[in-house]
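Teaching assistant here, posting this on the class forum so everyone can see the example we discussed in section. The complex has two components, and the goal was to see what a joint structure prediction looks like when all of them are supplied at once.
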Amino acid sequence: MKLDSKIPSGPLAKKWDKHKFELKLVNPANKRKYTIIVVGTGLAGASSAASLAEMGYNVINLCINDSARRAHSIAAQGGINAAKNYPNDGDSVWRLFYDTIKGGDYRSREANVYRLAQVSNNIIDQAVAQGVPFAREYGGLLAHRSFGGAQVSRTFYARGQTGQQLLLGAYSAQMRQVKLGKIKLYTRVEMLDLIKIDGRARGVVTRNLVTGELKSFTGDAVILATGGYGNAFYLSTNAVNSNASAAWRAHRRGALFSNPCMVQIHPTCIPVSGDHQSKLTLMSESLRNDGRVWVPKKKGDKRPANEIPESERDYYLENKYPSFGNLVPRDIASRNAKEVCDEGRGVGASGLAVYLDFEDAIKRLGKDVVTEKYGNLFEMYERITDENPYKQPMRIFPAIHYSMGGVWVDYNLQSTIPGLFVLGEANFSDHGANRLGASALMQGLADGYFVIPYTIGGFLAKVGASAINTDAPEVKDVEKEAKDRIERILNIKGNKTVHEIHKELGLILWNYVGMSRNKKGLEKAIQEIPKVREEFWKNVKVTGSGAELNKSLEEALRLADFLELGELIARDALMREESCGGHFRTEHITEEGEAKRDDNNFTFVSAWEYKGENQEPEMHKENLEFEFVELTQRSYK
Amino acid sequence: MSENMNLKLKIWRQKNAGDKGRFVEYDMENVSPDESFLEMMDELNEKLTHDNLEPVEFDSDCREGICGTCGLVVNGEAHGPLRATTMCQVHMREFKGMTKLTVEPWRTKAFPVLKDLVVDRGALDKIQQAGGYISINTGNAPDAHAIQVPKEASDLAMDAAACIGCGACVAACPNASASLFTAAKISQFALLPQGGPERKRRAAQMVTQMDIEGFGDCSNLGECEAACPKEISISNIARMKREFVGAMLG
């Protein structure tokens, strides 16, 4: 299969404008003849649904939550990047582009990333106009702060709730269109499968999460904005209902899946406290602006933090990376935390944590300033751990946070299935092997507000409007498959709960496909995961019926897909014989112990094709061509 | 490390919206004080599943206090005993010394129970749809710095915008009023210059919708503010009333 990324020719800075001009347009009066199905109501889903409806398309918008406002984008804390250069510190579209390409360890597409940097400024304008209450200075202008992987201050924020405020902004625009009748919104509805007719994506089969009713929606195009797959690992910073099923079902129907091994492990999460743990809580990366990361110099030093004198502390990030210090990118901060813990210098009862210390910040800035900047995060930390970070350093440890990999899309954000578009975290396109902080919000909104409204028009204008009856046999077949899958799960009546099996999968993934990986471990994971999958299909226990609200059933359906995706993550990691960004193979390191890329052999995006249940998938390659940026060893020293 | 706890849970079970519902008692032993209340409920559900019983359905998602999905009434208090905290962030250590906990859903006519502890809060979305937005289409925005907003106004708007739409204010109010929720949104936009053009229309429509959805009136009891996990101030309700009267007078 030849993958055509459809990157426009010409100079980097002109590609997007040129492409927009060349795309076919749908006449304003004809837009109302088209129906677009948007699955998901996070930043990418809400912003695309609202924007497309404003343009005149009919939008069907689905979400699994009880309200569109609750999608997991809401939990993003720190901020959103934009190349405004308001602080006059040398920022530019080019610099944001360059930082993102470099931060992604040269495994993303130049053209996509440049476009992302270009539209970043429009997002801030749009959000301000919507009434998003960004932090401001006394002069009435916007405030900003710095984030990992950048030496300029380009991150806009709304206290520690930037994701919430941006999502509520998009949600308000979406609610306006619901009121106007241009968006038909269905909440507590989950996509179970994709309907393909004549090779085109024409709809989705869904389950009503309250009544259990299966219902199909059809239209002219389908947009998936369904987020990432971090919950494959069981414990992650994702919301407990976040799942990969929409993307995975599309994959099974023919959409290639790219770079699944590229998952981001966030360095600043609250450590696990026991077996009961149901999710991990992130502490915003912005804390690393003022917090200092350290561990004791001595192994097994169990003294309380305040009894360890300055001379016996190892501020390992500041020492090892003097120019970026505590603000090194996430992958580097995470790996170093693991390293010091592996050496036996971890802190807390489990030894699986490092300190993030605010003592100096409080001395330098005063407690009030620290409270104003991070107050809500400090409170959250204390609520969970029962420890006061004003008095003793926070304990943090890395956790699975974000998936850079996802459904393969071209420059138009279209997958390998015509008419199926994939936005936000669900696609693979912009972050390469590692995402920089405050770039997820930027990408989700760029895709939804400023990319898809143009590119989907090019597709629709070409194919023309046409309706599909939901009684069509192709639709009924997919419905029946979904119904059978549900019945099969309910009839197993085994001995293990969904959570028990999910924990087994999570443990394999964390141990062998987590922060550092090697051939032996990955091969073991590829052996073990099918066994867990088999166990699931023989021994899972879901009580209750399919014709009612049944969260165990929902979780079982999602786990069934994670059990397939988990294996693909391991296969991709095994295939990629190099270290880059979040993918760290212990066989491939520099003399200093940093990730060592192999640009000669691995400057490509993997794109896996589904070949059937328990069949080995086939890998295709999209070679990455760097016309404008020189590939260098990433250094933050 | 404090000791593990043994608890008797009295939980509301209701098969569906049509069922009358009843309390059922469950024993939970050896509960760690470091687990969250919802993790304790997860453990109960694991136990029930192994006993071939249906788990207790309850809503939650982010489990870090921001999505607004969770919400239970524990021993009569919306979101439990800890101030300014959602249910998902309440840890079992807060119940130290207690042996019996009563767990109920949000109870109000406007939030019908769907199953067990899960309720339908769609009425809040309807209020938002009635005017909780600034009518600007994508692509029409001027440069962000074309609009200057005094820091004080921006901070106050953010205080109001912090609402997570969980509905605890309604659950805690003896009149089941949604005034705090509605006022928070009206205030956010009333405080910002961007919200100016639609200010009156918005207040009139949102307040009217609140009545249509069957929420009660505000009688200034302040229970909403006390229950609010984001500490949204009741002064927003005063602002909403001024905005509404202003809108009615033209």
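For the discussion questions: Chain A has 16 helices and 19 strands. Chain A touches chain B through 83 residues (CB under 8 Å). Think about how each of these relates to the inputs above.
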